[in-house]
Structure formats: structure tokens, C-alpha cells
Amino acid sequence: MMDRRAFLRAAGLAGVGTALAGCSSAGTTTPSGPATTTLPSPVSTSAEPVPPNWELLRANVSGTVLLPGDSEFSVAHQVFNPMWDARNPVAIARCRTKEDVQACVKLAAESKVPIAARSGGHSYAGYSVPEAGLQVDLSAMADVDVRQDGTVRVGAGAKLIDVYTGLAKAGRALPAGSCPTVGIAGLTLGGGIGVLSRKYGLTCDRLESATVITADSRVANVSRGSDADLFWALRGGGGGNFGIVTEFVFVTEPAPELAVFSMRFPAGSVDTVLGAWQEWIAAAPPELWSNLIITGGGSPVCTVGGCFVGSAAELNSLLSGLKPRPASRTVQEKAYLDAMRYFAGGPTTSRQSFVASSRMLQEPADSAKITELMTDRTDMDLLLDSLGGAVASVEPAASAYPYRKAFASAQIYQKTDAAKATRATAQVGEVRDELGTLVGKTGYVNYIDPAMPDWANAYYGENLPRLQDVAKRYDPNKVFAFPQGIQQKP
């Protein structure tokens, strides 16, 4: 059994989120621009809220509706991070069909009860457990159907390992994250950084269409040709903002043969290794993805790992260009599914308490200052995931994901427990803010941080105004409002 930190050490990334989505196909370089769309009929703003009728919801949902008095309730609402166990939803709807989700949204709109979707349950801020609200559990909607044309239809409740397994059986691949229990929905909605991103783009770049239940309970089949503004917003606009996605259709690639690697460096070498790694990965071909993980302490240490689309011999040649030499280096050729399992670190169902945040590196950063920043940071990792390649081939305005030209993402991750959570939050905040002075006040919405200063601009950049406009048009009454929703003030 391996915990969350082990996943991060293996791959340096993870998806997260509640359950909404949308994205463009890889290689798109032209913004969709202001699109003419058929807008939903708004829910009346003058209607007074009515008390929620849970028995009627039970009658209208083919799955199960759980209430606080039910024996399963106290466990059923729990998500990956135990720090959010104290959240108290008023109901949980285990949905099986899009009609079930429609019934849930209708109730929430009429009664003004908060509503949030739960796919994998990895929302870093626990937003898939709405306080005094209705949790829409999509885990039963998890079909993975690979079609003859190379596209795959995926239910919004599917976990990454199930998606990878289904694709591998058909000889196909999708660029996505590493943690096997992360939901495809939240990962895609926030962009979807992964080990194949430099070669094949973000997860959202492979999205062809999505089925969304909007705030007026409409079933919207969105794509570039239908509800184009909503489709644009779902590609990186973050989970929970525009509706509940029930199904995705992705364009896939033939499953490649891969080579994976790991290199360990001695204590005291972080400054040198980080400086060299930044130059090395910036010049590397897009077939190579790499991460660098700095583990804080009195003398920080680092590891470098990654994935190459190609042979071990080709990879070894590229690795020889990284100086200084590592203390150890392993290289293994793996089939696509085996490589995804390698980055997952092994099967696990364990939960873990943690605090995390992020920044985006627009260009290589000062390695000496980052090393100093991680000194004496016990139980903290700083995970740098390389970007560029296919990610950068898409213009920032072509989808809602704004950091197309970023050099790397940086995740600040600290394992903790409830007793130490306040101190851990403060420590993560210190590193986040200091790192912000070095690389800019940016962030990755899939590592959403409740304490992130000016979070809306940090997560969405120049795409924020258009996202706010889309959210207002599709959800005028804020049915899907939550503390860091796009319509909320930062």
C-alpha cells in the first residue's frame, strides 16, 4: 500500500477536482473566439426557494439518495483527504444516469441548496463535499467505451486507472495524471497535466465533446459546434463552475511504447541539479517529460524522474546530457498501461491528510533561492513538472487553461494531520508566497488552495473575464456557487 506522498514522489503530479469538464483537441492554435450559442433559459430570479423534497428526489433518482439518518451516510460523503470529514452535506445522491443528475440540479435550483459533484473525491479544498448541500456522487457513471474511430466515451465517475485499463485493452492512450483514484472529470476540467503532456497535450486538449447538465436542468451536448462558449470554458475553467458533466468523449492516440526513469542525487546538490535540470528539460524534445522533486529538510534532497516516448537506448542518450551525474539511475522500457501503473506507485485505497498549493513557472527560476526556500521544511515536497511541447502549441485564449507558455508547474505538498493542520497551512502559505515573488502570482486550479491570494487571477489569468461572462450566462442564479467559484469575488 502506498500513500499519496508516494504517488507524488513517483510522478510529481495528480489530478483533482469535483466533476465538470471540457477541452479542445491537441494542436489547436486558433482561439474559438466569441461564439454564438444557444443560451439556457434562466431559472427565475424571483422564485422563492422551496424546502427540498428528499422523498421526491428518491422517487426520481434510479440510484440511491442517502440522508444523515441513514447508516452509510457518515462514511459515504468522505473524500480522499480526511481533513474534510467534518463537512456536513444534507444529502448524497448516488446517480446512475444523466436524468438522475437532472433531478438533483432541479432540486438544488428550486430549493437554493448548495450542490457539488463528486467524481474521484480528490478536490484539494474538499469542494466535492458541499457544507449543508447536496453531494452528487457520479462514481457509478464510470463506463469506458473505446470506439472504432479511436475516440473514447468516458463516464464522469471513472477513475484514471479504469480509463487507462480500458484504453490499453484497445491499444489506445490518453494523456492524463498519475494517481489511479483521481477522477477523469476534475482532472480534465482543470486542464490535466500528466506524464505525456509534452508529447500529446493536456487531457482537456483531447476532449471532443461533453454532456453537461446546466443550471436550468438542461442536457447540453457541448462541442466546438454546439454551446461553443461553454465548451471553451470547460477546457481548463475548473471543476464545479458551469454545470455537472456526466460524460466525456476524448480523441485518443495509439498506445506508445515508453521508457521510464528515476535518478537520485546526494544531499547538498539541489541547487546545482535544479539549475542543470531547468536548462536540460527546456532543450529536450517533446517526447521527453520529466519532473524534479525537492524534499525539504535541514539539507534538502532531490530526485529527477520522467517518461520518454521511445526506446531505453534513446532515453539513456538524453539522460547523459544532464549534469551532474546522479548517485543512481534506473531506466525501464514499459508498455503504456505498465508505465501508468509505475507512476501510480502501486494500488492503494488509503486516504491521506495533506495541505497543498501551487505556482506556475513562466520561465526557469532561481535555483539557489528555491533551495533556500525548501531548507528546514520538514514533511514538505516541492514538485516541478515540466511543460512545453504540445501544451505550448495551443494559444492561451484557445481554451480556458491560461498557462500554455509556462515552463513548469510547481506543487507545494505537505503531509499533515488535523492536529498539525494549522501549522502546515501556514508553512505551505509561506512557501507559496515566497515562490510567488520569484515566479509570479500564478497557480494551477487542479491544486486549488482555499488560502491562495487573489485566487481567481492566479488560476485563470487573462481568461478570467470571459470565464466570468460564461458563468453568468449559464448559471445566472449561482446554482453551482462555491467559495472559489468563478462568480465569487477573490
TrEMBL record:
The keyword Ligase does not apply. Coiled coil: none annotated. This is FAD/FMN-containing dehydrogenase. It comes from the Bacteria. Belongs to the oxygen-dependent FAD-linked oxidoreductase family. Residues 85-255 form the FAD-binding PCMH-type domain. InterPro entries: BBE (IPR012951), FAD-bd_PCMH (IPR016166), FAD-bd_PCMH-like_sf (IPR036318), FAD-bd_PCMH_sub1 (IPR016167), FAD-bd_PCMH_sub2 (IPR016169), FAD-linked_Oxidoreductase (IPR050416), Oxid_FAD_bind_N (IPR006094), Oxy_OxRdtase_FAD_BS (IPR006093). Keywords: FAD, Flavoprotein, Oxidoreductase, Signal. SUPFAM superfamilies: FAD-binding/transporter-associated domain-like (SSF56176). Its cofactor is FAD. PROSITE patterns: FAD_PCMH (PS51387), OX2_COVAL_FAD (PS00862), PROKAR_LIPOPROTEIN (PS51257), TAT (PS51318). It comes from Kibdelosporangium banguiense.
